[in-house]
């Protein structure tokens, strides 16, 4: 029997890396965690991810897989006997899940940076863009406990790591996400009751302090 | 096989993302109705079916909308897996294909767009350098993934052929208008050969838009032409 060796190369604050952690924990896949210092990137990272030189990277039996959503699908397609499945079996439902995951992936992070790195009008634009995205996504939960139904699915795992950043966005942008998107925050709290999520998400205060430090670093 | 009335594609002429979906519909012999969208005057259909992004393409299958070209491509592959399969079966190969598609759409394509849109000649040169580097990377990827075959998918057109191939009309246009060969015979010989094979493939040839469509699409992009040229 071939022994499976799974390594996750990540940086602790990355919401993209948290996605992969949650996925591995949800399926109970044993893995080794390797922290990469993004301010001093190793030559190891450029070997396993020559195209982007970014984290996270999943290395499975010495073969690297890059891009977080790509890694989530790879995990779902490789460990097919482990539940929960992150994507439903119906092609149309799969397409919808992929669309929303892609939408969150492309829009949310970039818009949120305007809130904590921008000043004046740019911050307001960022706040409005983030709220627009969150409200659109909130509309998709419906009566289900999770976007994936009874279990975490692709969209849940894609979005929930950003919950660690809500405190940062709210503090910089001076607004309350719970007031604007109560159903979304209720969903987030349900996610946090899952051990896979609770152990994979960084502490919101640590994220806030890290972003304050980063802002000082970029201001130099 | 889907009947014509069941499948509709909302698109606009020069969009490579629309062309990409058309490639797959053609390869899988799926009949469909094409609905032309005026992106300067977005229709109720587009605004209601795709509230998040309001972009083309949108595929309607039995009136259910699906957006995002790569999502549509995978959907079509899943509903008709046995007719000209697009993605490989092995999870690792699928992951490599998807990762390169992500690079093409989120890194390489934006460089192409910036090159086209910027009027600053220094920035244009910067973009050119980045694109040349990107094409070199894609040349290496082609050599690895094609395994000696004509296409990224090997002997048959596959996922990355569709993902990159939808830009071929644009690459030709860049050569004509800017004198810049995005894929260059000397720098990227295997990719250049791949391009020729794609152009002469019956399914691709019948789908790639004409030069006139590209020129019209190009003129429509905001901020490209100074105002005095718009009414020329």
TrEMBL record, chain A:
Q: Which residues form the signal peptide?
A: none
The protein's annotated catalytic reaction(s) are: RX + glutathione = an S-substituted glutathione + a halide anion + H(+)
Which Pfam families does the record associate with it? GST_C_2, GST_N
What PROSITE patterns does the record tag this protein with?
A: GST_CTER (PS50405), GST_NTER (PS50404)
The GO terms describing molecular function are: glutathione transferase activity
The catalytic activity of this protein is classed by the Enzyme Commission as 2.5.1.18
Is Cytoplasm among this UniProt entry's keywords? yes
Q: Give UniProt keywords alphabetically.
A: Cytoplasm, Transferase
Any one GO CC term of this protein is:
cytosol
| Record localization | Cytoplasm, Cytosol
Q: Which domain of life is it from?
A: Eukaryota
Q: Which GO terms describe its biological process?
A: glutathione metabolic process
Q: Of which family is this protein a member? A: Belongs to the GST superfamily.
Q: Pinpoint the GST C-terminal domain residues.
A: 90-218
**Protein name listed in UniProt:** Glutathione S-transferase
Described by its record, this protein's role is as follows:
Is involved in the conjugation of reduced glutathione to a wide number of exogenous and endogenous hydrophobic electrophiles.
From TrEMBL, chain B:
Q: Where is the GST C-terminal domain?
A: 90-217
**Which SUPFAM superfamilies does the record match to this protein?**
GST C-terminal domain-like, Thioredoxin-like
Which terms are listed as keywords in the entry? Cytoplasm, Transferase
Q: Which GO terms describe its molecular function?
A: glutathione transferase activity
EC numbers, comma separated: 2.5.1.18
Keyword Cytoplasm present in the record's keywords: the answer is yes
Tagged with keyword Cytoplasm: yes
The Gene Ontology biological process annotation of the record reads:
glutathione metabolic process
What InterPro entries does the annotation carry?
Glutathione-S-Trfase_C-like, Glutathione-S-Trfase_C_sf, Glutathione_S-Trfase, Glutathione_S-Trfase_N, GST_C_Tau, Omega/Tau-like, Thioredoxin-like_sf
State where it is primarily located: cytoplasm
The top EC class is transferase
PROSITE patterns listed in its UniProt record: GST_CTER (PS50405), GST_NTER (PS50404)
Q: Which reaction does it catalyse?
A: RX + glutathione = an S-substituted glutathione + a halide anion + H(+)
Coiled-coil-forming residues are none
User: In terms of domain of life, where is this protein from?
Assistant: Eukaryota
Kindly list the GO CC terms recorded for this protein.
cytosol
Q: Where is the GST N-terminal domain positioned along the sequence? A: 5-84
Pfam families, from UniProt?
GST_C_2, GST_N
Task: Report the subcellular localization.
Answer: Cytoplasm, Cytosol
Role: Is involved in the conjugation of reduced glutathione to a wide number of exogenous and endogenous hydrophobic electrophiles.
By sequence similarity, the record places it as follows: Belongs to the GST superfamily.
Q: What is this protein called?
A: Glutathione S-transferase
Q: Give the source species.
A: Ambrosia artemisiifolia
């Amino acid at each position: 029997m071939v022994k499976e060796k799974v390594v996750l190369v990540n940086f602790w604050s990355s919401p993209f890396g948290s996605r992969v952690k949650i996925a591995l924990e949800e399926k109970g896949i044993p893995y080794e965690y390797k922290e990469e210092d993004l301010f001093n990137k190793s030559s190891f990272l450029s070997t396993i991810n020559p195209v982007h030189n970014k984290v996270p990277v999943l290395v499975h039996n010495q073969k690297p897989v890059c891009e977080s959503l790509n890694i989530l699908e790879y995990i779902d397609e490789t460990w097919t006997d482990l539940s929960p499945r992150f994507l439903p079996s119906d092609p149309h439902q799969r397409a919808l899940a992929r669309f929303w995951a892609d939408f969150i992936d492309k829009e949310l992070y970039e818009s949120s940076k305007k809130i904590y790195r921008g000043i004046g009008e740019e911050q307001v634009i960022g706040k409005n863009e983030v709220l627009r995205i969150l409200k659109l996504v909130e509309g998709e939960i419906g009566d289900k406990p999770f976007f994936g139904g009874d279990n975490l699915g692709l969209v849940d795992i894609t979005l929930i790591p950003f919950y660690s950043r809500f405190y940062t966005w709210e503090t910089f942008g001076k607004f309350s996400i719970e007031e604007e998107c109560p159903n979304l925050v209720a969903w987030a709290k349900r996610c946090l009751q899952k051990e896979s999520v609770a152990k994979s998400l960084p502490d919101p205060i640590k994220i806030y302090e890290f972003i304050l430090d980063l802002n000082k670093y970029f201001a130099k | 096989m889907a009947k014509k009335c069941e499948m509709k594609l909302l698109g606009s002429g020069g969009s490579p993302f629309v062309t990409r979906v058309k490639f797959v519909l053609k390869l899988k012999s799926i009949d469909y109705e094409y609905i032309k969208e005026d992106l300067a005057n977005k229709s109720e259909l587009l605004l209601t079916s795709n509230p998040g992004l309001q972009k083309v393409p949108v595929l309607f299958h039995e009136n259910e909308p699906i957006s995002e070209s790569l999502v549509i491509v995978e959907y079509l592959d899943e509903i008709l897996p046995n007719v000209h399969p697009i993605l490989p079966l092995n999870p690792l190969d699928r992951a490599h294909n998807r990762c390169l598609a992500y690079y093409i759409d989120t890194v390489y394509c934006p460089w192409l767009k910036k090159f086209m849109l910027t009027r600053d000649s220094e920035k244009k040169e910067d973009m050119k350098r980045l694109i040349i580097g990107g094409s070199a990377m894609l040349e290496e990827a082609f050599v690895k993934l094609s395994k000696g075959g004509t296409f990224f998918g090997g002997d048959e057109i596959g996922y990355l052929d569709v993902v990159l191939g939808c830009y071929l009309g644009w690459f030709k246009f860049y050569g004509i208008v800017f004198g810049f060969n995005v894929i260059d015979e000397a720098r990227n010989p295997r990719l250049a050969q791949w391009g020729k094979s794609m152009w002469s493939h019956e399914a691709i040839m019948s789908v790639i838009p004409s030069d006139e469509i590209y020129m019209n699409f190009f003129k429509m992009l905001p901020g490209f032409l100074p105002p005095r040229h718009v009414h020329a």
